[in-house]
Amino acid sequence: MPSYQPKPEHKFTFGLWTVGNIGRDPFGEPVRHKLSPVEIVHLLAEVGAYGVNLHDNDLVPIDATVAERDRIVAEFKEALAATGLVVPMATTNLFSDPAFKDGAFSANDPRVRAYALQKTMHAIDLGAELGARVYVFWGGREGVETDAAKDPIAAIKRTREAMNFLCEYAIDQGYDLKFALEAKPNEPRGDMYNSTTGHILAFIESLDHPEMVGVNPEVAHEHMAGLNFLHGVAQAWETGKLFHIDLNDQAFGRYDQDFRFGAVNLKSAFFLVKFLEDVGYGGSRHFDAHAYRTEDYEGVRDFARGCMRTYLILKEKAAAWNQDAEIAALVKEINADDGAMAPYTGAYSRDKARALKAAAFDRVALGARGLAYERLDQLTIEVLLGVR
Ligand code: DIG
Ligand code: MN
Ligand code: MN
């Protein structure tokens, strides 16, 4: 029986805030005592994670002195050295402090916008110092409860100005960093800007340095918008912009549940894992999720192990799907091409257009053909259920 033991080459990572989540929610107080960043590093090492990610203030309190900051970072580095964990990604908390209650980069108050830039530059310095190669931006407060409060064009322009400034800062500092923007449609703001991965892919093209900016799609956030997560990830990948990914799970039409990976939509998790493995995605498999509020720290370990085990089990199911002869035959049949349409494909030409306009098609026959997707999907379900 395979062990499904996580290994460094699987690149499974967790944020300090994930297994460090103490179970506070809008309707209840914490249920778990707070772990220190060093304790979290050791917990992640124990369950077999490859890396640990962080917001600046997950590690360094917002009011820490420079000396305190340096001590905390030194202790954290010792824990990393002792466990072998790495820090592939870092990010800024621009959503917890009341100063950001109206957003950070898009805030109406120019002092807040300037403070957000200052805080992010210090956080980028911290991430670079810890060896991060990807820097995530999640605009947790970039939004409105009423559109009376903010001009959406102003919000876009302010965010673009901030991203251009910070790209230049990273270049000026000589940091080998890629920026990954993370979308979410709402929560904690009533409505958030850059609400889906698609919005962000368009936004990136308007930046001064689009080549260093990509996306960090999160399962729960696209599901909150009622979207097919794989399609957003595929579009990001196809344009070379899948710089990072936040794996978790989420029932459609709910608040951001950040469930254990595969805990709700096993079939969509399967197609996602199959895609990432088929295309050879080489980035972190980052679980931006947390244990149920019902759990103690043994349950938190179960949560973390479950994220990684489910990924590895689905990776094995994806290989089985790819190797299944009946599935392969159906996929071949579905994509059959006798070359008859070749004269009409590819780049436009006037002759091609003329010939195609004159071509005869049997529309009724085109519509009558059965496509056997029921058979193919049933076979997929049976691979997932372990009977193939
Ligand atoms: C929430 O999904 C966000 C924050 O946790 C963090 O800024 C980002 C990093 O993955 N995800
Ligand atoms: Mn989330
Ligand atoms: Mn996330």
* Whole-number mean pLDDT: 97
Number of domains: 2
Number of strands: 10
Gyration radius, to the nearest Å? Answer: 23 Å
CATH architecture of the largest domain: Alpha-Beta Barrel
User: Which fold name corresponds to the CATH topology of the largest domain?
Assistant: TIM Barrel
The helix/strand order is: EHHEHHEHEEHEEHEHHEHEHHHHH
Span of the ends, CA to CA:
16 Å
Bound molecules: 2,5-dideoxy-2,5-imino-D-glucitol, manganese (II) ion
Characteristic terms for this protein:
388 residues; alpha/beta; TIM Barrel; 2 domains; two-stranded antiparallel ribbon; 15 helices; 47% helix; globular; binds 2,5-dideoxy-2,5-imino-D-glucitol; binds manganese (II) ion
Outline of this structure?
The chain has 388 residues and is of the alpha/beta class.
Description:
This protein is of the alpha/beta class and 388 residues long. Helix content is 47%, strand content 9%. It contains 15 helices and ten strands. The strands form two sheets. An eight-stranded parallel beta sheet has the order 8-6-4-3-2-1-10-9. It has a two-stranded antiparallel ribbon with strand order 5-7. Helix 10 (266-279) crosses helix 11 (297-323). One manganese (II) ion binds at residues 138, 182, 218, 246, 288.
